[in-house]
Amino acid sequence: MTPLGRREFLKSSTLGMMAASFDAGRKGPVYPDSNETSGKAIRFGLGLASYTLREFNIEQTIDMTKRLALGKIILKSMHLPLESPEADVAAAAQKVRAAGLDLYGCGVVYMTNEAEVEQGFRYARAAGLRMIIGVPNPELLGLVEKKVKEFDIALAIHNHGPEDKLYPTPASAYERITKLDSRVGLCIDIGHTMRAGVDPSEAAQRCAGRLLDFHVKDVTSAAKEGDTIEMGRGVIDIPKFVRTIIKLGFPGTLAFEFEKDGSDPLPGLAESVGYLRGVLAAL
Questions:
Q1: Residue 113 belongs to what domain range?
Q2: Angle at the Cα of 78 (from 73 to 82), degrees rounded to 5?
Q3: What integer is the mean pLDDT of 32-41?
């Protein structure tokens, strides 16, 4: 297929996938959560990082996630308050699961002292989560490893790009955790990775032994000034990234984190979901 033909195919696929995604909210999911291209060894599923819907309540967040046929979700504290009593956390988590979503993680959770580490793990346990997407201060990583073993809950360190003084790139976190329990790993944010001037595909390959989760998005430039944009319109080579993680056998979740248009994110989010599904269909 020529480059032009491939682009046109992806464009038409995206439009079709967008329409199907919205239709899923009325007629039930039309795309499985994993193995989205028949016959290909795809082990990951698609989900949502709820920060995308930060201006909406939990009921609206559940509804929009289901409309896009995304079966997995990570909740940020505005949807599952970190400071709530454990019984309230458990009840809120049950509401999400009763709606048919796999609530597998929370975050991003910041951990700047020992009390916040303890709070984060107790919160995750109360919600029945398998993973915390977190930013623990480096000096707390030993304690984090201890809690990972105690609670049997993984912690995935999230990179935040050039402004992040702790973990600007995946490699800056990876080099600190290579000797820790394998459940201490990475949530690579491919947008912030690109903003730090690092190809997300290369970052995934370099950190392959510690990949627990991905936040997926596109950005306008490979620089600090880069902003979130609808997937496929930015500078990240999404097909290359997808091929890379398929080759690596990544078994987790690609969680969409669409930070643009906070008060009306659904059109851009749907376009991004449709684009990625189009890429998967074109492989």
A1: 39-266
A2: 90
A3: 50
